[in-house]
Design goal:
The complex is a heterodimer of chains A (212) and B (215).
Chain A lengths: L42 H12 L11 H9 L6 E2 L2 H31 L6 E2 L1 H10 L32 H6 L1 H6 L14 H14 L5
Helix pairs in contact in A: 1-3, 2-3, 3-4
Chain B lengths: L33 H5 L4 H10 L6 E2 L1 H28 L4 E2 L1 H10 L3 H23 L1 H10 L4 H26 L13 H6 L1 H21 L1
Helix pairs in contact in B: 2-3, 3-4, 4-5, 5-6, 7-9
The chains are: A mainly alpha (212), B mainly alpha (215).
GO cellular component, one term (chain B): CCAAT-binding factor complex
Function (chain B): Component of the NF-Y/HAP transcription factor complex. The NF-Y complex stimulates the transcription of various genes by recognizing and binding to a CCAAT motif in promoters.
Subcellular location (chain B): Nucleus
Chain lengths: 212, 215
């Protein structure tokens, strides 16, 4: 496994861990071990970093080349014309997505290092796979990142068939109550057709186990 | 940046635009195919943003960066497709910023919406300032490769008008009724009244600006 040996000089400010409960493990085991590494990111910290993107004062320089974004947008044959604002907004949204994915994945990097012999200071593809599996809003990445069957999704109602654990067991799984600390479930009111769409998408994802 | 087309952007598929404001970076993608590279955003930019939120001892494997590259491209296509569907339902052909924000909201990324709206307001304010401020207008003109030629022609006409008005100023300072006489016709009075000419040039230049706007 090739690693990025470059050290990051910008150290993340420590969150107020004394006010937050310790994060639970994905497998039921008590008591909780002591943590030697910084605490994984809470939703509050994640939202803090995402909000910082909106507070950027320099609106002239963009994190990504706008021409590349426009090419990706226009790879869809239905897309004809876009205003100048569209690639600018998407560039900023991509920054937020990368921060979001990185923080969720780092959560698994730290936890994974304690469960297995895997290094706990290197973020890898499997960490991203675990992070995208557990959050419903990353369902669209099913063809890009393979699902991690060892991770329990946050949405039991939308749990796909054929999963390792049947839906009934997942709902009653004790750890699930603690998972709420990490991510709030999606608001059902905003997706009237979520049950049907979710099941279809979940089914498709389950069928594409050979992806990448 | 495509700041000259706030309403629509008719970019041709094969035409590459100039983005002086975008940071240039080398892509570590092993695939040298140009089309393959265009499918993803530069991996260096992706890695730089990922490092922002990792602790000092955190490292990122190369396959993780490549995976995030793929996720970002999928996200762009996902949002663009949703925005395009909305435009088609509303019989519109151009995707604008509000369509993008709507699509991001609909697809479950509500956490991104408030910061994006803040950013969009700042972006629009900057555009407005550039249009109203002459200095910033010049700066923008320097950055706009496409508009440079047109502006050059306009500037040439403006300079020409300036010269004419300066001549008029010289004649007016001498209280001479006819503005079409050559300057060397009265050399001594011109030198004697140079201070008044300079003072009168300011309101004349102001009028000149109004005239140029009228043109």
């Amino acid at each position: 496994m090739e690693e990025n040996n470059g050290n990051n000089n910008h150290y993340l400010p420590q969150p107020s861990s004394s006010q937050l409960p310790p994060p639970p493990l994905y497998y039921q085991s008590m008591p909780l071990p002591s943590y030697s590494l910084p605490l994984p990111y809470s939703p509050q910290m994640r939202n803090y970093w995402i909000a910082q993107m909106g507070n950027a004062t320099d609106v002239k320089h963009h994190a990504f080349p706008l021409t590349r974004i426009k090419k990706i947008m226009k790879s869809n044959p239905e897309v004809n014309m876009v205003t100048a604002e569209a690639p600018v907004l998407i560039s900023k949204a991509c920054e937020m997505l990368i921060l979001d994915l990185t923080m969720r994945s780092w959560l698994h990097t730290v936890e994974g290092g304690r469960q297995t012999l895997k290094r706990s200071d290197t973020l890898t593809r499997s960490d991203i796979s675990a992070a995208t599996t557990r959050s419903f809003k990353f369902t669209f990445l099913g063809d890009v990142v393979p699902r991690d069957p060892s991770v329990v999704t946050d949405d039991p109602v939308l749990h796909p068939d054929g999963e390792v654990l049947p839906p009934g067991t997942v709902i009653g799984y004790p750890v699930f109550d603690c998972n709420g600390v990490y991510a709030s479930p999606p608001q059902m009111q905003e997706w009237p057709a979520v049950p049907g769409d979710g099941e279809e998408a979940a089914g498709e994802i389950g069928g594409s186990s050979g992806g990448n | 940046m495509t700041e000259e087309s706030p309403e629509e952007d008719h970019g041709s598929p094969g035409v590459a635009e100039t983005n002086p404001g975008s940071p240039s970076s080398k892509t570590n993608n092993n695939n040298n195919n140009n089309k393959e590279q265009d499918r993803f955003l530069p991996i260096a930019n992706v890695g730089r943003i990922m490092k922002k939120v990792l602790p000092g001892n955190g490292k990122i494997s190369k396959d993780a960066k490549e995976t995030v590259q793929e996720c970002v491209s999928e996200f762009i296509s996902f949002v663009t497709g949703e925005a395009s569907d909305k435009c088609q339902r509303e019989k519109r052909k151009t995707i604008n910023g509000d369509d993008i924000i709507w699509a991001i909201t609909t697809l479950g990324f509500e956490d991104y919406v408030a910061p994006l709206k803040v950013y969009l307001c700042k972006y629009r304010d900057t555009e407005g300032e550039k249009v109203n401020s002459p200095k910033q207008q010049q700066q923008r003109q320097q950055q706009q490769q496409i508009q440079q030629q047109n502006h050059h022609n306009y500037q040439f006409q403006e300079q020409d008008q300036n010269n004419n008005n300066m001549s008029c100023t010289s004649y007016i300072s001498h209280h001479h009724p006819s503005p079409f006489l050559p300057v060397d016709h009265q050399p001594f009075p011109n030198i004697a009244f140079s201070p008044k000419s300079l003072q009168k040039q300011f309101p004349q230049q102001h009028d000149n600006n109004i005239d140029s706007i009228h043109w």
